[in-house]
Every structure is written in C-alpha cells, then in structure tokens.
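Re: export button greyed out
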Amino acid sequence: MNMRGYLGRKFVQALITIFIVICMNFFLFRIMPGDPIRVLIRNPKISGEALERVREQFGLNESLLHQFFIYLKDLFSANLGTSFNYRQPVLDIVVERIPATVMLVGTATILSILIGVVLGVIFAWKRGTRLDVIGLSVSLILYSMPTFWVAIIMVMLFAVYWQIFPLGGMGMPGVQYASAWAEMISQLRHMILPTVTFALILVGEYVLIMRSSLLEVMREDYMLTARAKGVSSTNLLRRHALPNAMLPVVTLIAINLGFIVGGAIQIETVFSWPGLGRLMYTALTNRDYPVLQGLFLLVTIAVVGANFCADIIYRYLDPRVKS
Amino acid sequence: MNSALVKQETVTLWKKNFSSFWSIFRENTMGLIGLIILAIFALMAILGPYLVDISILTVDGVTQVMHPPTAGYVLGTDDLGKDILASVIIGSRVSLLVGLAATVISMVIGTLVGIVSGFYGRAVDTILMRITDVFLVIPWLPLMLVMAALLGPSLGNIIFVIGITSWAGTARIIRSQTLSIKERPYVERARAIGSGDGHIMLHHILPNVFPLIFANTVLVAAVAILSETTLSFLGMGDPTQVTWGMMLHFAFSMGAVSFGAWWWLLPPGICVVLVVLGFTFIGYALDEVLNPKLRRRDQ
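Workaround output, generated via the alternate export path:
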C-alpha cells in the first residue's frame, strides 16, 4: 500500500475514534444517574418554577438528540461550557494549565527515554550477569508500584525527612522574588522532585523494551554478517543494532501516552502541581462536570492525535513497513 | 456423535492441556515465587477475620492516635487510633475481591468480543474492532475516574468501571488466535457434521484459546488491583469499606505525609506492590510456558 493511502486510512480511523469519543463524552454525562441541575443549583428547596427556568437556560428541556446537536455546534465554535466551580469558560481554565503539565511531562518523558535506552543497552550487552538481573528486577518492581505511592514516598524522603526539596506546588505562595532569576531558581527547585519521580515511574518500561528489542536484533543474520565483515563491537552496536532496536521505543512512546496522562493526574495531585492533572482531581472532588467533560475530551483528542503522529513517524523510520 | 461423548472429549482436552502446562510451569522459579506470594495473600484474606479482632477497627477513644509502631500495635495507629496491621489484613479482603471481580468481568467481555469478532469476521469484526481500538486509545485513568464519579462511590461501581474499561487488550489477542484456530481441520470437520456456530465457538475455539485467556487474566488482574488502589486513592472508592487504596486515601488526605507517618503509608502500598508483583511473575512464567520459541531461546 502506498504512503498516501495508508495515511488517509489512518486519518479516517483517528477521526472515527474522536467522533466516538465525542458521542461517549456527551451521552456518558447524560445517561449516568443524577440530575446535573441538582448539582448545579445545590439547593434542595428550589421551587419548581425556578427549576424550570434554569432547565430552559441550559437547554435541558430539549430532546436528547437536539441537545447533542447543540453540543456538537458548541464544540466546533470551541465552546466547552462554563465551570460550575470557577464560573469561567472551561477552555480558558484548561488552556491556562497546559504549560505546567507540558513542562513536567515533557521533561520527565525525555529524561526517562534517555536513561531507559542507555540502561536497556547496557543490560542487553551484559545479559545474564548479576547487573542485568538486578536491573531487570528493579524495573519490574518499579513497574508494579502505584504511581501516586512512589510520589508519596519521594515526598516523605526528600521533602519531609531530609528537607532537600519543597513539599509541592510550583513556587512559594505570596513570596516576592528579588529577580526573575531568583523566581526561576525557585521554580526549578520545585520541579526537580516531581520530574524525577515521574521519570522513575516511566523508565522501567523503556529499559525492558529496549533490552528485549536489542537482544532480538542481535540475533538477526545481518548482525552476523556485519561481525564477519570485521565491524568493531562499538560500530556494530551503534550503526547496525541500535537504529533497528530503537523502533519499538517509538511505538512505546505512543502506547504509553494514556499511561502518562494517568501518571500526570497522580503526580500532580501528590505534588500540588498546578497542571491539567491536578485540575482533573479538583474537578472530580468538586463534581465540576463541565470541566471534567471538557478536560476528558481534550486529553483524549490529544492522545488520539499523538498516536496518529506516531504511526506516521514509525512508517517514516522503518522502510520495511513502506513496501 | 452424541453430546455426552463430545462433552467427555472436551473435558479430556482440558485435562490434557492442564497437566502438560503444569509440568512445565513448576520448573519456573519466578512463576513459583509469584504463586507463593499470591497464596499467602489469599490465606490472609480468607483467614482475616480470624486473625485479628475486628473490634480493634472501631474507634474506642482509648488508643493513641497516629502512634508509631510499639509492642501493642506492631504497625502503629492511624488518625482515629485504629490499628494499621489489622486494617491491612482486613483490607486485603475487599482489595483482592474488587481486583478479581473486575478481572472476571474484563475477561468475559474480552473473550466474548475476541471470539465473536474473529469467528464471524467481516462487518461484525470491523465494528467490534473499531470499538476495541477506541477503548485501547482512550487514556484509561481519566475514563475510569469520569465513570466512577458519575456512577457514585460504591464497591459495585468500582468493579464495573474497572471491568468495562480493561478488556480491549484481551479482545485483540483472543481475536487473532481465533482467526488461526477457525481455519484448522477439526473446525471444518465439526462444520461438516452439522455443528452450529455456538457449538463450534464453545467446544472447539474456547478450549484452544483458553491458555491465552489464562495468561492474560493474570496480567489483567495486576492492572485491576492497581486500578482499584488508584481510584480509591483519588477519592472514588467507597468510604465505608477498608481497602488498601482507601487506607492510602485517608492517610494522604489526613496529612500523614507531612506528619512523616511512614507506618501508615508504607504497609498498604507494600501489599499492593507484592500482589501486583505476584501476578506479574506468574505472567512472565506463563509467557515462557505458552511460548515455546521463547523457552528454547533461553536454554
């Protein structure tokens, strides 16, 4: 199949997925028990007349299908509704939190991939030795830990007992910094612990996949050919093995996105990091449904989009898929 | 061929599969360690009420609150003066129950979707696999949190939410295996002697995908236990039940972290990690047993 046909098919699939998610997002919040009006008003003694007025105001007296069309129309004009809690447009609240999350998640992901690939290569090269066994066990154990629990332990160790890093947040509330430089240093200090924790949680899987992928590649015939041709060990690894072994790592980044989103919710909650994950947690505890709904939709679309991009990159990187 | 004979044949097939499986599995150290860990926790859950005096878990106003481990309270107490050790033992019951029940739901949906999709193919396959892909790509934690929040905090809802969101991977694996099995001669033979679709799926395909179902169950169970802990921690659990996740939820929201109450935060978490590790070890062992290519390679 040619590249354009493949891309077109993948694109249509991504669009269908997003449409199903939009439908789910709409109907989930309608079908589930509980009247949204009751939550919105929070006054059990409201008169029937006033209730009817609010119902009309929010378009809840229309048929479900009609409501769905209004929802779709609003989506296309980037209207995600108004937060119950903040009384602000959901989109504004969400956009405001994006930088904090991207900074944390981005740094942690890059860090974990770098460390994971290097460790994976070392373990594969020294397979069967004690180092390899210890490395594998640690990766497995890290992989079995609840993310939020690792975060709690890190806070307890480094912020409560040794007090090297602050407990959480992104900066000291109410503190006036002497200079922009001082503010940046403070932010950096706040960022280290959550970033390292996040990277620690992600790194195990990259180690495991890199190790097994490299072991797989080293068994290939072309590796034997290269060795027979007299290619040195270092070159064998760098020029022949690594480029091929890196491919599954690209796929893993895409597959992992859902996991990363889950991790962000937990880590931002424990570290009071003012990003999207913490916003989701507060929206959950306040039952702020518009924020929850908007956030869920945006995050899902972002993950679907990223998966689509990963598909393209993978095809570009691996010539075998093209033919 | 009468149906009694068919049933007997199916039973023999199951038995043969199991005994050959066990003879390889017991050679695997990792798998055995996993099995032992899980056996200990299963015993703890079953014998729980006989091991500890449940009245310790009621607040009596006599015991000291947030007390570090002492002779009387091996693992200390929480903010209400409840014994942590007793809570952990009692908590194993609901934690494991939720994990296993969710796993069963997930496996039933995954197997059903996988077999039907692979067996019928065409439009049925396309539609079911599109839905499966949606469930694979949606970030699982937000989806579970949203559903749990909308349904309200209860044990049944947590089980339902975990089960309904975690079947997609199983469905994909079972489908691809079904695709290969349905082309085998014995399926053709069964069709030739007039067996219906339901009969073929139940008596010819199901027993042959069962090893895969089994291996996958173990991995799904690990995910389910982790999910229960995480959902409860984030406040979606049933506050009237003692589970490891709820213990961590209360510990975190009552400030055990800044108080440095490690005796409250570590034990429930360690239990979760051990159970998940137990399942993962068995999963690895099963992978080796069921994947002969892998087994030969390691020798």
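Chain A is about 80% helix and 0% strand. The button fix ships in the next patch.
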